[in-house]
Design brief:
globular; mainly alpha; about 5% strand
């Protein structure tokens, strides 16, 4: 640009600076699940105890670091293990300490042992909790507290969860599941004659907040296509309804335990067929 003295003063080059404060996506989910824990416990005392939850978290992180070093030859970021551990600490109910450590250990170990074509096919905490509920039913139960008539805690969690899941581009998974759950809840009410409020009520509890924001949206254990993800969560909700009609107490955990891996295996099989077809064409 020209100055008043007639000399030419070069314009300052525009400098694009990165924002000094940015939020790593790896910390978003741990921060949110910690928020669920604090809001739920301070409002309704959802934790069995702080030491049991801490035991689950420490077991998860310790095993993740050790198994990551053994199998992958590197130290892994502990965020994923923290989510698994705190999920176990919130969802498991037992008078003993050992189920918390064992459930966390099963959850993390499943990531390294139960693999197909290099991919683990079960959500870790869903796998660990389902196994414990099925094999140690005399000692282990799952969280069943609901928010009751106090809507504020639920609204806080749903608002934060929706923002975070949208940020991670996975809101469609949660949205389709919730819409399907509500539709099937009204269908169950019509089929059984029970009040629709009692059929809808479970989704207002903290257990379902973890289920819909973490378990069914886990990037490592969901199929890749957006359409496929929507179909899978619809099928999870459908099987859950069938299990509920048969009086299965832990229907959502078992529904995801069955449908999720089946969908992953179908995708892996289709990928293998496409690879074989591509090889056949090139040869």
């Amino acid at each position: 640009m020209s100055s008043s003295s007639g000399t030419i003063v070069p314009a300052k080059a525009s400098v694009h600076r990165k924002p000094q404060i940015s939020l790593d996506n790896r910390y978003v989910a741990p921060a949110f699940i910690t928020c669920i824990l604090l809001v739920g416990h301070l409002s309704f005392g959802i934790l069995e105890s702080y030491p049991k939850t801490l035991l689950a978290i420490v077991t998860s992180i310790g095993l993740e670091l050790m198994l990551g070093r053994i199998f992958l030859h590197r130290w892994l970021h502990p965020a994923s293990a923290y989510i698994s551990g705190i999920s176990v600490g919130i969802l498991v109910r037992s008078p003993a300490y050992w189920p918390y450590a064992l459930c966390a250990a099963i959850s993390i170990t499943s990531k390294y042992v139960l693999r197909v074509k290099g991919r683990h096919i079960w959500n870790p905490s869903n796998f660990g909790i389902s196994v414990m509920l099925f094999l140690a039913a005399d000692t282990v139960a799952s969280l069943s507290i609901q928010w009751g008539n106090y809507l504020l805690p639920m609204l806080v969690i749903w608002a934060l969860g929706s923002i975070i899941i949208a940020r991670l581009h996975r809101f469609h998974i949660t949205g389709i599941y919730v819409a399907s759950f509500l539709a099937f809840a009204f269908l169950r009410s019509w089929m059984t004659g029970s009040p629709w409020q009692s059929e809808v009520a479970p989704i207002t509890g903290p257990m379902y907040q973890l289920f819909i924001f973490f378990m069914i949206t886990d990037p490592k254990t969901t199929v890749r296509s957006k359409r496929g993800q929507c179909i899978v969560v619809f099928l999870v909700a459908l099987l859950e309804m069938v299990l509920r009609l048969r009086q299965v107490v832990y229907a959502p955990f078992y529904a995801l335990f069955i449908v999720g891996p089946a969908a992953m295996l179908v995708e892996i099989w289709l990928d293998s067929r496409r690879e074989n077809s591509a090889k056949a064409v090139t040869t």
